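Sanity check

After download, print the first record. It should look like this:
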Amino acid sequence: MTGSKDDTTDDQVPAWARRTTGESRLAATAAIVGVIVLQLVLPEQFSPQPQWLLPALEAMLLAVLFIGNPVRIDREGRWLRLVSLGLTAVIGIATAWSVCRLVLALINGHVGDDPIVLLGSGGAIWLTNLTAFALWYWQYDRGGPAARAHARKPFPDFMFVQMQNPDLTDPTWEPEFADYLYLSFTNATAFSPTDVLPMSRPAKLTMMLEAAISVITMSLVIARAVNVLK
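Expected structure tokens:
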């Protein structure tokens, strides 16, 4: 009788607040591979040199994570956490370099007059920046995907609408990488929270930084493209 009651209580707890099997690695892996490809096709002036070095390091770290958690991200370990954060940091450093180089080139006029190259480079850097922040949100919220799978931290850093409306949400719903990618996209385009609210101060500061980078990058690239196109 007691076991039945416990099972019923557990079923009433939403998936995001209890222990689960962990999310699939597929979406995050695809996003990281996409970032690596974009880094390799960027013009040399916007990439750290040698251009292959950071993408190769990112691919190596991704392979290590894939070995540690090949299907679902549910295995915890200090070394896995450090490698995962290291990979996100390398992507962030490479993206920050590209953003700075692009902004300086636009301000100093050291970019070509080909609007296709300009918009393509700006779009690629904007996409890598968007994905880098999505990875940071995904890694930070409640200790990361593995910690969320084990329900280590009860208080979320980001409040999704599904958490606010449990009666209108599938009880098996829990935030996955696609949700953080959506958060990053809306913040990078609206320059403010939309339907996902930052709850902790670090989450607010990170979203503020992304919005600032996005508005500066987009405004400079668009202004330069309009000037070139006349």
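If your output differs, re-run the checksum step. Summary of this record's structure: Residues 1-9 have pLDDT under 50 and may be disordered.
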